[in-house]
Amino acid sequence: MAPVITSISVAPQNTNQGSYGQILTVNGTGLGTTVNATIRVGAKGVTPTTNTGTVATCTLPAGCGPVGVSVVVSGTGGGTSSSLPLYYIGSPFVAEVAPFEGSATAPSAVTFTGTGLLTTNQVQFAGVTATLTPPTGDTQVTATPVAIAELAAAPWFQLRSASVRTAGGTFTIANAVALYDDPVITDLDPDTGPAGTEVLITGTGFAGSTISVTFGGVDADFTSISDTQILATAPTGPIAGAQDVIVSTPGGDSVAATFTYT
Predict the structure, then answer these.
(1) Which of 131, 151, 180 is the last residue in one of the domains?
(2) Which run of H or E residues covers position 110?
């Protein structure tokens, strides 16, 4: 019986797009055996790694662009199947990851910028699969990391590698993102006073490239003393009575503490 192929797919993306070294699966009938069959990928003939007669597999040889895939079976009743198209995809490259800093408990979307990203089918952070936004172009893809447990100690952030998998392969970025603990306020000293009062804010997780302090929603001038203390000045403005004091970092916003204007 002459070979007939009905479909092909390349793992792990399971499409007819792939690259050198990935596994090609050919489905059909009359595909022969590992001894008498050859899988032709473009002009190259490859001996099947496995072959049941209806499913044959092999490792993709090097190639580029669109090629045809067919099966040639030697001996009586053999022959050459018709071909199906396979598309070689170039390897991905990531030049930039943004934002670098984010929250450990509520991570925001991370955008990867580079080339060869249109066929991205998986993004992982430290080996954990992220929520992927299907790419619409070749130069950017976005994914949201899964929340992780807080470090609960200095330096208050955890570095995570990232890997972007496409039909052309996988690109890995070491220390791609830093995920921060939520800041926590444990004390205000003093917790009452007029506008202009210097307030020592004590807590944890006061770390990251962007930190802000607000009193009643108004930005306050402050000096970072350490990752556990901030010296802030109660701002002027239309503020009176008890007001929420919030410290914000890449990890998020703290639970409010109360400062009462007098």
Answers:
(1) 180
(2) strand 110-115
Token pair recorded at residue 258: 């109360």
Is the separation of the CB atoms in 251 and 227 below 8 Å?
Answer: no
Q: In this structure, are 166 and 98 located in the same domain?
A: yes
Q: Pairing relation of β-strands 257-261 and 192-193? A: parallel
CB 101 within 8 A of CB 177: yes
Structure tokens at 114: 């580079």
- Return the residue matching tokens 């479909």: 7
- Taking a C-beta distance cutoff of 8 angstroms, is the pair 59, 45 a contact? no
Residue ending a domain, among 56, 88, 120, is 88
81 shares its domain with 8 = yes
pLDDT for 214-260, tens place per residue? 999 999 999 999 999 999 999 998 788 999 999 999 999 999 999 99
- pTM, two decimal places: 0.83
Structural domain boundaries enclosing 19: 4-88
Domains: count for the chain: 3
